[in-house]
């Protein structure tokens, strides 16, 4: 590479994480950065998930940036369109657009140990960067399981995160595969228009009522006139969730009471005992994400819906066959089967100091210091990295904590001065992860008796944070430089060494 573009920071992704990083960098006085986005607009999750019924499970006043409060949220739990609008607004308000490069999928990022920078190959060209911030999202690459006979299906197939709005579902026989957060929003949204809906359920979710309502004009007026009321509302929503954490992390048995509420929610809508039996989970509530819906169970009780309490195992033309042998003829299949979480594709594309990819280095399980930096990957930081997910609160809180860490990381590089990189010590990464895994042992995610996407193929929980958001914020307030090795360019480091040696010889003489 001779003539090329060089930036101080390259941020990958323009969802909450990438846009938040951009705002934070500007606030730190850093303007020499780009945001590389593979799609044509900002928004990430909220751009890609446009399926019918898509909405947030966390109240909007908490699921938004603390530095960009929105007094005008129309509902307690906003729908996808409003959140997407909010993110477009953040990009405009904070003048981020000149930094964003759309249609710029990062194909590879390689660390150059001589030059101490990252070389990035993107769909729109190459560039180098001192620091890479990967904000590609934990739930951004849809996963469709390998199903025997998949190719024989003659109908329409799509994933919930890639909804085909041109395909008319009216009157069709539709199969919904999966019963996660997206599926339980899709089912009631499409049930009325489809001819027949067959839900393939491997594991039933726990579903609690959703306290969703319009935010009144009076409330919005108050939030506009007195901004501290927006903050107070956010604070209350946050505090309630902080208090719940202990039950998830230390006393899962206490969650038994919550199971009773969820059962009552089901019993209100489902009168058929056989259907209730199919829909009753056999694991502790909270082990998988607790889902919120007032419409899911009523939709399942409708006569045009069938629940197959078994996973899809084979496709023979138009016939879908479940693991228990149940068959259903369908015209379309909607996969609500989640995302590549513990095997995120960006990890394949990032090659560190030893020429090893992040995916290779994480073969035994994802691990990063304070959820952000990985051994062997200098000046590379992940937003929503390993063990930063939440079971009960807003991911924006975790993203903002990580942005504090990023800001201090940038300050530390400036203080060290010159061409320099920080790479976390293996002992520091191991120490952090051992502490996290130790705390994980008692949590409902590990002891609740379920198999969830929080666990990797080795059964290790590398996705969820086993504590409060306050604890995580504390842990990421500052970069402890002692946890890092300071790396200098080889020539500079060698001449510094020889200068030191010479000085020592002179003083000895
Ligand atoms: C349907 C759904 C509902 C959710 N509901 C909630 C909720 O209620 N509460 C909650 O806290 N969280 C929720 N989440 C989690 C949500 O993903 C996070 O809250 C948050 O939006 C993640 O933001 P992000 O910026 O890290 O990732 P994303 O929003 O996923 O953004 C990542 C961006 O990176 C881009 N990208 C990926 N790879 C590349 C590449 N190689 N090159 C260039 N660009 C790339 C993507 O195109 C995308 O724009 C939900 C997720 C989904 C899918």
Would you write up a description of this structure?
The model has no long low-confidence stretch (mean pLDDT 95). The protein is α/β, with parallel strands linked by helices and 509 residues long. The chain has 16 helices and 20 strands. The protein has helices spanning 16-27, 45-48, 80-93, 183-190, 217-225, 227-249, 256-269, 273-279, 296-300, 346-349, 358-361, 395-416, 426-440, 444-447, 469-475, 490-508; strands at residues 5-12, 33-36, 100-101, 106-112, 117-122, 125-134, 156-159, 173-177, 196-200, 207-208, 291-292, 305-308, 312-316, 319-322, 327-329, 332-335, 350-351, 380-382, 421-424, 484-487. The strands form 5 sheets. Strands 1, 2, 3, 4, 5, 6, 17 and 18 form an 8-stranded mixed sheet that branches. A hairpin with a 4-residue loop joins strand 4 and strand 5 (117-122). It is globular and about 80 Å long. The protein starts with a strand and ends with a helix. It folds into 2 domains: 5-140 and 342-493, FAD/NAD(P)-binding domain, CATH 3.50.50.60; 150-213 and 221-335, FAD/NAD(P)-binding domain, CATH 3.50.50.60. 34% of the residues lie in helices and 17% in strands. Bound molecules: flavin-adenine dinucleotide (FAD). Flavin-adenine dinucleotide (FAD) binds next to helix 1. It comes from Streptomyces tabacisoli. This is Baeyer-Villiger monooxygenase. Keywords: FAD, Flavoprotein, Monooxygenase, NADP, Oxidoreductase.
